[in-house]
């Protein structure tokens, strides 16, 4: 029997785009390990610029065949006629197409060709159906929905959510689609499996003798950096033994506002911006921090949170990080409202109570092992692909509803 062919279409796999780019590569790697064929079609978009150029011919990204196609015009919608042409050949060859993101050309054209060639597709919204993000730029999004997106959602075999909370929030909008939950996994770098208190000062000497509060992720409006900077300022005025490290790419120029907030709080000189970290530097940051903080206004999953827990870090996250229930149930961190006082208090508790911090770190490692590795999450996603692919080209579009009842989901 020929192996399943899974085609992923995503607007960008630039590392500067954070979790979605990392997740799609790992989805493919896991599917390949399980005997399927999986590849990625994307554009050469890279933040507000482009990659070194379009390859069109597949290149290897961590063992995954990936084809880049050039964008034309502005970077936001990532319009790529070359991608559209390629999809006319690639989509009819696929068993199932996994489409990532909404409101952009690659996802819209992929959904169109799936319907045209009667190939079932999953649509993963990447958090865009969270009411907080759904309300942003509403007139522009409403027009796009009326023209394209509502049909894309309605015609999908399923809309793929990575947490129950993400699904619950999206279903509150009243849109028509078939929801399904299949969590993400994370490939854990073994070099971060043990906390190493000296890892930070060995790379960044200015942190020596300080307790490091780590933010790891894109410098972006939704990440709650306005809350974090003010919470850190409040705490730093009470104690001299802490330092804030902001590690992540700034592709939108938002870092200037973050620096202004830190300056207003009088703590800019006690904050370090490292830029995007990968490899050994990323491992050093995750293994050597005192605690991890992510007070997001919206976070459909939180890959950085999972990576921090895998490193044994106690975490402070807002209730808008959609794996907050799992973190709370596992006693792996402190979940707070997205406000300065609660974030500051949670950070202080974990700094002052090292035994609590250690217990939460160990609980977080256990949670990741049990729920968020690909060994745990991969079989559920593969079963979902199998259910979707079983819809013949003459089949119905919403047979996945049965899969939810049979365990793929909450």
Notes on the structure:
Helix 8 links the parallel strand 11 (211-216) and strand 12 (242-247). The protein is an alpha/beta fold. It is built from 16 helices and 16 strands. The protein is globular, with a radius of gyration of 21 Å. It has two domains: 5-186 and 374-405, Rossmann fold, CATH 3.40.50.2000; 190-372, Rossmann fold (3-Layer(aba) Sandwich). Helix 8 runs parallel beside helix 9, helix 8 crosses helix 13 (340-352) and helix 11 (303-310) crosses helix 14 (354-372). The strands form three sheets. It has an eight-stranded mixed β-sheet with strand order 5-6-2-1-7-8-9-10. Strands 13-12-11-14-15-16 form a six-stranded parallel β-sheet, sandwiched between helices. A two-stranded antiparallel ribbon has the order 3-4.
């Amino acid at each position: 029997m020929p192996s399943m062919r899974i085609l992923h279409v995503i607007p960008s796999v630039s590392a500067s785009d954070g979790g979605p780019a990392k997740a799609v590569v790992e989805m493919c790697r896991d599917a390949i390990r399980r005997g399927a064929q999986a590849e990625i079609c994307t554009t050469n978009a890279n933040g507000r610029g482009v990659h070194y150029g379009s390859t069109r011919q597949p290149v290897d990204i961590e063992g995954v065949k990936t084809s880049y196609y050039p964008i034309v015009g502005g970077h936001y919608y990532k319009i790529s006629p070359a991608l559209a042409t390629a999809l006319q050949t690639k989509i009819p060859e696929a068993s199932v197409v996994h489409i990532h993101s909404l409101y952009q050309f690659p996802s819209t054209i992929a959904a169109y060709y799936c319907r045209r060639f009667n190939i079932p597709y999953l649509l993963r919204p990447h958090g865009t159906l969270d009411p907080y993000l759904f309300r942003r730029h509403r007139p522009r999004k409403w027009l796009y929905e009326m023209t394209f997106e509502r049909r894309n959602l309605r015609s999908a075999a399923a809309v793929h959510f990575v947490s129950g909370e993400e699904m619950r929030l999206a279903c509150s909008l009243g849109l028509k689609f078939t929801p399904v939950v299949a969590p993400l996994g994370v490939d854990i770098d073994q070099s971060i499996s043990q906390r190493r208190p000296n890892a930070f000062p060995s790379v960044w000497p200015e942190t020596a003798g300080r307790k490091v509060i780590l933010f790891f992720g894109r410098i972006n409006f939704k990440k709650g950096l306005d809350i974090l900077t003010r919470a850190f300022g409040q705490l730093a005025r009470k104690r001299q033994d802490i330092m804030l490290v902001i590690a992540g790419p700034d592709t939108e120029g938002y870092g200037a506002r973050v620096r202004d907030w830190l300056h207003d709080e009088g703590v800019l000189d006690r904050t370090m911006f490292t830029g995007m970290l990968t490899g050994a530097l990323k491992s050093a940051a995750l293994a050597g921090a005192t605690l991890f903080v992510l007070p997001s206004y919206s976070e459909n999953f939180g890959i950085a949170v999972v990576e921090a827990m895998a490193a044994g870090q106690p975490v402070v996250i807002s209730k808008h990080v959609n794996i907050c229930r799992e973190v709370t149930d596992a006693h792996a961190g402190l979940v707070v409202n997205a406000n300065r006082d609660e974030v500051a208090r949670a950070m202080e508790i974990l700094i002052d109570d090292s035994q609590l911090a250690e217990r939460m770190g160990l609980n977080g490692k256990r949670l990741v092992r049990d729920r968020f590795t690909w060994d745990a999450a991969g079989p559920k996603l593969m079963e979902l692909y199998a259910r979707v692919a079983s819809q013949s080209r003459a089949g119905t579009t919403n047979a996945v509803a049965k899969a939810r009842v049979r365990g793929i989901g909450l």
